[in-house]
């Protein structure tokens, strides 16, 4: 288990694997609905999420950590150009409503640090949850199935709740970084609130994934694994390395939850 947790804390996992959490549920269910999966669009969406998260990381280092050496502008502009190209793929090939959602997502990414400086506010946590837990899964699903149903939107509720809990924990961890300015949302009980939200998301995930054809194996695995790996979020850490490891782990846990929910939902 310790080796597995260490793997989830690796920065490479956070950069290239964790972004799947925002789209995996919608993509896989979309693949199941359509007879002609569009893997090019799926890859473009996955790439868009990766590069927008890289841009978000550069902005964080530049505007919050004031670490100019970690933010070479050439790499930042390269990521920006790639994001625009990938976004154009959606604008030119998808329904206009999906294009608008992608544009709004990009505006949130580009403007959250400057000029609006949303980071650390409840507005930021709400918008981050809205886009990463809800909107991107809608875009992923519609890009494959070309339809939306009320059932699919309801099925996203556990993911949205878990994403909100994950954002609260990440915000709380950043509050403990000694070299950074304090984020605005402070609460002594934030870890307990977030953990309770994770349990609620777990129970709702089990409920929405029923009925099952696998003798509840997916639901049992969710019920065992999710609380076990969520408990470390209740433990406080002080050093910068441990804080960053927990931030990375928290991002990976979002993907783990979505994958387990997806498996229980499908099987």
TrEMBL record:
Stated name of the protein: 1,4-dihydroxy-2-naphthoate octaprenyltransferase
Transmembrane segments: 12-33, 39-55, 75-92, 98-117, 124-144, 156-173, 193-210, 216-235, 247-266
Keywords: Membrane, Transmembrane, Transmembrane helix
Origin: domain of life: Bacteria
């Amino acid at each position: 288990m310790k080796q597995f947790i260490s793997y989830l804390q690796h920065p490479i996992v956070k950069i290239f694997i964790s972004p799947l959490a925002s789209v995996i549920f919608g993509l896989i269910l979309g693949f199941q609905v359509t007879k002609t999966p569009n893997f090019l669009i799926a890859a473009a969406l996955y790439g868009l999420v990766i590069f927008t998260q890289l841009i978000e990381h550069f902005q964080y280092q530049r505007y919050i950590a004031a670490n100019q050496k970690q933010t070479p502008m050439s790499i930042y502009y390269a990521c920006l150009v790639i994001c625009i190209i990938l976004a154009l793929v959606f604008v030119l090939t998808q329904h206009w409503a999906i294009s608008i959602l992608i544009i709004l997502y990009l505006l949130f990414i580009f403007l959250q640090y400057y000029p609006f400086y949303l980071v650390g506010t409840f507005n930021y946590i709400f918008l981050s949850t809205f886009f990463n837990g809800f909107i991107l899964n809608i875009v992923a699903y519609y890009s494959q199935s070309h339809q939306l149903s009320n059932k699919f939107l309801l099925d996203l509720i556990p993911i949205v709740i878990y994403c909100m809990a994950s954002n609260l924990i990440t915000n709380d961890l950043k509050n403990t970084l000694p070299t950074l300015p304090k984020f605005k949302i402070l609460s002594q009980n934030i870890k307990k609130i977030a953990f309770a939200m994770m349990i609620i998301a777990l129970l709702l995930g089990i409920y929405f994934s029923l009925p099952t054809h696998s003798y509840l194996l997916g639901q049992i695995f969710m019920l065992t694994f999710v609380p076990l790996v969520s408990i470390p979020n209740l433990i406080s850490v002080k050093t910068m390395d441990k804080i960053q490891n927990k931030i990375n782990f928290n991002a990976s846990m979002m993907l783990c939850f979505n994958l387990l929910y997806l498996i229980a939902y499908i099987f």
